[in-house]
């Protein structure tokens, strides 16, 4: 049975929490200050520490130093003086969550419900995870390079906490797989994981999709609809392409992140939702803030724990490891035993893969289809781009005094020319969504028509 240590200088609070937590199937111990807490930790190592932030002889965060490294302990901080700074500091230190006084008992029970009831199970999971990692697998991710091992270390630290994660990386690097890995290595792994592409939903519908709507709230709303926040309650919500979310909705998202409350479209009734956010962007978030694409206050709220995904060209032999994994899957699906020729593997390592893992996966599937015999050679599906480590550069001269809008226009057309007019590839190189590229081209076309 898991053991909870309750540290609070208010006797009534300690007693009430001990009773509630015992009813949830935990054994408990109590302490009124850090000194007593240290004694209790020595007597019985806790699985969970529920501690007030402000104590007579220090702060609850001081207890992190008393916990034995390597043994998983969930620390939940309680504070009567909530602030974004204190919450962020606590989560970065490794706290699983924090509660504000007066304590919301439903939220406390939801947090406790995520705590595994078996310490042995935790140890077994950790051992298996380490074994898989030696073979280049970590959660849903695959890669054995130094860049990916460092990335795994960061996920390993942040996944068990409640910290909001911001994934930053080029298109095709596997941000959704990284988000799923964060979820599956967290205490929320038995709860829903939902992914939403903020750039793929119509601006007129995105609020309804995010928060839901009531029947009759607008034309076509024939029934009540639960949005992503409601459906992912207790789990993780992955917001991909966060910089493509309309600014007016970013304000509402910020409020949900700060309060845990939202309203369906067509009602004034607030709904409480316990959701962990993992956001992602293929743009530089600070540039998005400067361009007005991302609210600065929302950026700081999302940027509690930023994670940078390395592009495939910086991952060494991972391209071969990934390609073999994709080929193994295709062989299993089709009952074949195709293999890569040695020169094919050499080509895979030499290619720069501007589209990253997504481009590699598509290429392996194409080569698999085109290869008639059991051996897949480079002649089966020639590379569409040169195999140099860096794509050819096009130099654009921007004179002093040129407007940002005109510079933006020249950059887009130059990139389109370099990508042979393939808009999807151009959008990936530019770090914008395909929808945004189409909108810009429509604007330029309308402007040219007016000038004629």
From TrEMBL:
Coiled coil: none annotated. Keywords: ATP-binding, DNA-binding, Nucleotide-binding, Phosphoprotein, Transcription, Transcription regulation. Residues 141-369 form the Sigma-54 factor interaction domain. This is DNA-binding NtrC family response regulator. It comes from the Bacteria. One of its GO terms (biological process) is phosphorelay signal transduction system. It comes from Pigmentiphaga litoralis. Residues 3-116 form the Response regulatory domain. SUPFAM superfamilies: CheY-like (SSF52172), Homeodomain-like (SSF46689), P-loop containing nucleoside triphosphate hydrolases (SSF52540). Transmembrane segments: none annotated. The modification 4-aspartylphosphate is found at residue 52. One of its GO terms (molecular function) is ATP binding. InterPro entries: AAA+_ATPase (IPR003593), AAA_lid_NorR (IPR058031), CheY-like_superfamily (IPR011006), Homeodomain-like_sf (IPR009057), HTH_Fis (IPR002197), P-loop_NTPase (IPR027417), Sig_transdc_resp-reg_receiver (IPR001789), Sigma_54_int (IPR002078).
